[in-house]
Amino acid sequence: MRFSLLKTDSDSEARLGRIETDHGHIDTPVFMPVGTVGSVKAVQPRELLHDVGAQIILGNTYHLYLRPGPDLIAAAGGLHRFMEWPGPILTDSGGYQVFSLADRRKLSEEGVEFRSHLDGTAHFFTPESVVDIQRKIGSDIMMVLDECPPADVTEEYARSSNELTLRWAARCKARFESTDPFHSHHQTLFAIVQGVVYPDVRRESAMRLVEMDFPGYAIGGLSVGEPDEIMYEMVEVVTEVLPRAKPRYLMGVGTPANLLENVARGIDMFDCVMPTRNGRNGMLFTTEGIINIRNKKWQHDFSPIDPVLDGYASQTFSKAYIRHLFIANEILGLQIASLQNLTFYTWLMREARCAIQEDRFLAWKDEVQPRVSRRL
User: Fold this and answer.
1) 20 to 30 Å CA-CA from 33: which of 24, 111, 252, 283?
2) Which residues are catalytic?
3) What's the per-residue H, E or C state across the chain?
């Protein structure tokens, strides 16, 4: 992987960059659709590529390990071949999913024992094993195993947890460097900064990981219930430490406003289930604001969902038709809503890149953010 920092906005920390992988390049800032189990829910890979314009998607090690399993994925030629997605893939290590199973896991220095949410069977993740699993999956960008503590833990616990995450990061890096790709393309390994909502812990985490010299850095453990302003504060603390010449990935974020505010703070990569999950529940993100498509006000509205966007779903189907599909519980409604929302998120990041390139990001953000965040 190679990252090129092409431009920084003169009035903010917003950055224009490019990540190059064996499966193609990624222009940043970028939003990554979430394909947890090798599928972005209700969206075909060719739709992601041609209609949405997605540059990279995300898979999850925990879920893919449980089903269908890394050996089957490896036998298929890796996740790219298994799901027929030609572009880059990033895999989360599964740390967040494991540690969200508070009553189903047991933590130790060696790793974490957990029980499957599917059938209750016992499993064990170590820093080394998650690297091995991601080698078999064949993702372009892999993540280290980390502990993601709840937002309300004490500072003492956050420090202890962060020390464990740092030791695990070093073990992941050692395993990565002592093994070869399972498939015929290069892979890279990102570290994850933790520290909950404590600035000193976040700063220490970032500094120690930078000393380990990873090719990219993620910020984890945010957007888990803390106020947005605290999230932004933690991002600022971390980005002051992270090297400018390497990509920065804020995990699990978020709303359109969250994306824009964090782009302004120097973040390059995002992922979140919000566009597809909210779409399946009838919330449509558009260039004019947020629509609850089930509302009766859309019953006789035959205008396109979003005439500004050039996506197939945005231009083709009327609000009245989409409302009808949701009221009738037709699967097509969920598909169209998911396409619309992913198209919108891709558009938002593309426009952000244009604004950075033209050195007008803050003015653009201040104009577009209230508009796309309002309820229609």
Assistant:
1) 111
2) 92, 271
3) CEEEEEEECCCCCCEEEEEEECCEEEEECEEECECCCCCCCCCCHHHHHHHHCCCCEEEEHHHHHHCCCHHHHHHCCCHHHHHCCCCCEEEECCHHHHHCCCCCEEECCCCEEEECCCCCCEEEECHHHHHHHHHHHCCCEEECCCCCCCCCCCHHHHHHHHHHHHHHHHHHHHHHHCCCCCCCCCCEEEEEECCCCCHHHHHHHHHHHHHHCCCCEEECCCCCCCCHHHHHHHHHHHHCCCCCCCCEEECCECCHHHHHHHHCCCCCEEECCHHHHHHHCCEEEECCEEEECCCHHHCCCCCECCCCCCCHHHHHCEHHHHHHHHHCCCHHHHHHHHHHHHHHHHHHHHHHHHHHHCCCHHHHHHHHHHHHHCEC
